[in-house]
Amino acid sequence: MTSTYAVLSEGLEKRFGAVHALRGLELAVPEGSVCGLLGPNGAGKTTAIRVLTTLLAPDAGSARVAGHDLMREPREVRRHIGVTGQYASVDGDLTGAENLRLFARLLRAPRSRAAELLERFGLAAVADRPAHTYSGGMRRRLDLAASLIARPRVLFLDEPTTGLDPHSRNEIWDCVRELTGHGTTVVLTTQYLEEADQLADDIVLIDEGRAAHRGTPAELKAAIGNYAQAVVADAAALPAAAAVLDRLTGTEPVLDVERRTAAAITLDATLTLPRLVRELDAAGVPLVDAGLRPPTLDEVFLRLTARKETAAA
Amino acid sequence: MSTLAYDTSAVLGRHLQRLRHASAIAVMTHTMPVVFLLFFGYVFGSALAMPGTEYRAFLVPGLLVATAANGIMNGMFGAAQDSHRGVMDRFRTLPMSRASVPLGQAAADLLTTAAGLIPLLLVGYAMGWRIEGTPLQALGAFGLLLLFRFATTCVGILLGLASRSEEAAGQLGGATFMLPLLSNAYIPTDNLPGWLRTVAEWNPISAVTTAVRDLFGNAPVPEGAAWPVTHPVLGSTLWCAALIATFLPWAIHHYAKQG
Ligand SMILES: Nc1ncnc2c1ncn2[C@@H]1O[C@H](COP(=O)(O)OP(=O)(O)OP(=O)(O)O)[C@@H](O)[C@H]1O
Ligand SMILES: [Mg+2]
């Protein structure tokens, strides 16, 4: 059973003094899949990655990565993982080529692997410049190249595209897709919900050090239902539209005066678009557009974390 | 080649490459002791009771040892820079020997120190300092200098790894230039007040300096001093052994431990 999971963790705990960064984190990442860890600042994503890549010892709990026990066989784990941390982990004083050749040497990979990766990540032209002179995107690509030298079975990426322009982001995404095409397992953290939607087979929402929700992107969206939405001709008609939505969905609608839009979440599968339109029309709402649409991951995220806050309050 | 030797040589290579990129800083590091030698040799040399030429022959071994003692500062800067700039995180996730990172740094430091002593020796020679012992003794003196450099580098690496920031390491490292002032490297300790004399004579720098002066045949071993100074070769070797035996494993453990 365990061999089918590239990452399997149970009850991971980590404290930094008074901060309880991980509170029993459980993860199960099937081999060859992409797992997206999604969470707000301070949720514990980086801590989770650092524990799973042998950089931090957990206070409690256990994990197997690439088939090896994290605590008992850290060296075996290191043999099979690649890591791109949240912050640059190359030597800024060395050139890109020197960096990759150094890591290739330490990994007993052929020297040609460095040149191959520089070429592949579009760094050949800047290969002989010190890495600290690179742009953010170049440095990110160098970091990623460094973590691919040994062709790892499990790749950990901590916010791989934060601060990158759309073009560089797409390049990284393509690279991740190509790797998973070859069977590499990827665990990535991100604050971009679109990124998780694009890349991840499974998403784990991390909140306060534990997995608050997990599922495929579609499942997560289904878990919070659909948005029933009405766009009206005149902002003055918004309250009337809101009253109808409130009655139909049982949740309080959100009003956007500028866009003359009212929207409310519903889990009611029997609410159909014709009925929504009929009810709004019957109430005399000057409707210009209406719809039932799945939420974006942003909405999922805000809603699932907000729900917890109201429960705690 | 064993994993340790192979990984250590890779890390050593990295440090030498870094040095090539930062050669201006390296040149400055190695010029400082020469400037000190000229300054002390002619400023103090003309103010002390000892004749100037005699003082300058006395001073050269002191500056060689003070330069070796800079291993604390250099080791600290290097280790603090690496641990606060992320590259060490990558090393820690690689299946490489844990000892190779501190050892590679120390080995690269030994090579550059050996090269850096040459200008100091040449300027010392021009100032009238000579090797007056046997060639074997002189070889022993150079060996002891490098052994002491290795020992102080081990101390520095631990302090650097344990430092909270590069700035903190910089400040503490800068303060280590005081250490040779509290020894017999620049002036004889005979006339120091009692407690200060005790501190200075138990400073490892004093034992090493006395041994180097003795082996080069520059100055006799002072009498009535603390044990490490009156038995300088054995005393300084024991000092080095104790420092290495304590701080090298400690530094390796500190590097390898997961936070
Ligand atoms: N070395 C440390 N010492 C003290 N506290 C820490 C340390 N590392 C992390 N923390 C704390 O643990 C919590 C989780 O931090 P972590 O970096 O894992 O969050 P994150 O989800 O990666 O956030 P971000 O999106 O900002 O990167 C935070 O409250 C953080 O302040
Ligand atoms: Mg983070």
UniProtKB/TrEMBL annotation, chain A:
Q: In Gene Ontology terms, what is one molecular function of this protein?
A: ATP binding
Give the Pfam families listed for this entry: ABC_tran
Q: Which InterPro entries match?
A: AAA+_ATPase, ABC_transporter-like_ATP-bd, ABC_transporter-like_CS, ABC_transporter_ATP-binding, DrrA, P-loop_NTPase
Give the residues annotated as coiled coil: none
| Residue intervals of the ABC transporter domain | 7-233
Where's it found, cell-wise? Answer: Cell membrane
Q: How does it sit in the membrane?
A: Peripheral membrane protein
Please report which protein family the annotation says this sequence is part of: Belongs to the ABC transporter superfamily. Drug exporter-1 (DrugE1) (TC 3.A.1.105) family.
This chain's protein is named: ATP-binding cassette domain-containing protein
Automatic annotation (TrEMBL), chain B:
Provenance organism: Streptomyces cavernicola
Subcellular localization(s) per the UniProt record: Cell membrane; Membrane
Supply the InterPro entries for this chain: ABC2_TM (IPR013525), ABC2_TM_bact-type (IPR047817), ABC_2_transport (IPR000412), Nod_factor_ABC_transporter (IPR051784)
Transmembrane regions listed in the UniProt entry: 24-45, 57-80, 101-127, 139-161
Designated name of the protein: Transport permease protein
Topology class, membrane: Multi-pass membrane protein
Hey, which family's this protein in?
A: Belongs to the ABC-2 integral membrane protein family.
Any idea where the ABC transmembrane type-2 domain is?
24-258
Listed A to Z, the keywords are: Antibiotic resistance, Cell membrane, Membrane, Transmembrane, Transmembrane helix, Transport
Asked if the keyword Membrane belongs to this entry, the reply reads yes
One protein family per Pfam: ABC2_membrane
